[in-house]
Amino acid sequence: MSTPTFTIFGGTGDLTFRKLLPALYNMHTAKDSADDRQIIIIGRRDYSTEEYCGKARDWVKKFSRLPYTDEDFEKFSAQISYYKMDFIDSNAYSSLNLYYKERDLNDHIFYFAVAPRFFSIIASGLTNVKNACHGKVILEKPFGEDLDSAKVLNIQLEKFFSAKNIFRIDHYLGKEMIRNIQTLRFSNPIFSNLWNSRYIESIQISASEDMGIEGRGGYYDASGALKDMVQNHLFQILSIVAMEWPEKFSADAMHDAQIRVLRALRPVADIRETLVLGQYEGYHQEQLVKPHSSTETYAALRLFVDNERWWGTPFYIRTGKKLDRREIKIAIIFRPSFLEKAAQNILIIKIQPSEGVYLQFNIKKPGDTDEIIQAKMDFCQNDYVNKLNTPEAYERLIKACINDNTSWFSQWDQIELSWNFIDKLHELYIWEKLPIFKYAAGTTGPEQANELLRGFGHEWID
Ligand code: BG6
Asked: Residue 175, annotated ligand binder?
């Protein structure tokens, strides 16, 4: 079988430049991708392949994990061809078919790096391309725009591609420390034995970004933080953190364990005690954002997993743009000690930008005193050598797709359950006419998100 051609729809978009090209460059340079691979970049703009590669070079220089060298880039870019095409024009696909035919490219991996509303348009266009239906397709999240559109999309895609060849990407599943959660939890009895509501008071999952929407208004304004981050990335983390021991550590067993968490999410009784939405000041001035848009750029949630393990332990989730920092972390806050002066033990899994584990515990203050102070153990694993050795999320996932490994991709039932939950939450918020709270850029988000926790005696860990 020949090396599959890698075709990217949305080849001039932010995702391709920032993530996909650097990932493909790293794979090529690290000899993780076949030398004879063809990379076809599809975009509407009028570039020659040479012009496109000039742009690609700048992005690879800026974002690739492995050091950029002219020599490596020349070899890599020799695989790239730019193909100008309007992918919403159904007539354009017969020419694409011809283009592949002339080059004898019959084996395909398609990457849909476009907004979800274009997925089915491209899939139906590809019916005009010989052998496309035997290929693989990688789809960016969010998969659909809500539950109903996701269902329709799934049916359409499964009509065309075989289910085993549909790879729904969630790049958080490729992040090193997200993969590490299970090892940290299950291979250390000091954590696994305490991993339940008897010992854990609350769990916080935070994904803060200091960037705004960076010219992605067209997509983002129709999406918002709940659909862009919570429904997919943060629900994946939630279900990995909260899952039961899987029967074995196989992809299917892990997946079943994650699904059981999503099924156990407690239906929302009081939306005011569950969700706070915010929008940064100045959002309306962003390109392609509607003048009075009520799209949220911040979301904070208080959720419960109703099963024996987690009865009574809240899961707090927050994410937002234009905040005071770029950071993803999971904080596990243990129940207080019976010694009044002792602080609560806190375990933090640091996912980004630094990767590592932080543990806070109590010790006696040195000297002639009984005073209790907190010791802070901070393990950091992303030093320079590790960074060079550890593939980034997109590299891992593209490689996994090439190798037919579906373990770290979102499965349809996960997507269905999480859409169902998020849609209901959003509807309730709108139904109750709750405001979208403003927050200043460079802060931790709206004050109401702090009040959400304070009302229950908790605080965000910063
Ligand atoms: C994407 C979202 O899926 O994840 C973006 O669409 C967000 O809005 C990005 O900025 C964050 O990814 P990372 O890897 O930088 O945390």
From this structure: yes
Burial class (CB in 10 A: 0-12, 13-18, 19+), 339: exposed
Ligand 1 pocket check: which of 233, 298, 318, 322 to mutate, most ligand atoms within 8 Å of Cβ? 233
Residue for token digits 């000297």?
367
- Identify which of 145, 221, 228, 397 to mutate to test ligand 1's pocket (most ligand atoms within 8 A of the CB): 228
Q: Which two tokens stand for residue 225?
A: 């933080």
Give the 3-state DSSP-derived string for 422-461, with helices as H, strands as E and coil as C. HHHHHHHHHHCCCCEEEECCCECCCHHHHHHHHCCCCCCC
**Catalytic center residues:** 233
Please name the residues in contact with 380: beta carbons below 8 A apart, sequence gap of 6 or more.
350, 354, 355, 356
Q: Which residues have C-beta atoms less than 6 Å from ligand 1?
A: 141, 171, 209, 228, 328, 352
Q: How far is the CA of 252 from the centre of ligand 1 (A)?
A: 26
Range list of β-strands (E), 308-345: 314-320, 327-334
- CA of 220, closest atom in ligand 1: 8
pTM over 0.90: yes
Q: What is the distance in A from the centroid of ligand 1 to the CA of 170?
A: 10
Tokens encoding 83: 């193909």
Residues with Cβ within 8 Å of 407's Cβ and at least 6 positions away in sequence, in order, are 251, 254, 400
**CA of 314 relative to ligand 1 center, distance in Å:** 25
Query: How many C-beta atoms surround the C-beta of residue 230 within 10 A?
Result: 27
54, 40, 48: which is closest to 11 by C-alpha? 40
Structure confidence by residue, pLDDT tens digits, 321-374: 999 999 999 999 999 999 989 999 999 999 999 999 999 999 999 999 999 999
Strand partners, 317: 205, 301
Find out whether 402 and 4 touch, Cβ atoms under 8 Å.
yes
- How far is the centre of ligand 1, averaged over its atoms, from the C-alpha of 428 (Å)? 26
CA-to-CA separations, 375 to 51, 188, 363, in angstroms, rounded: 55, 20, 6
ipTM for this prediction: 0.99
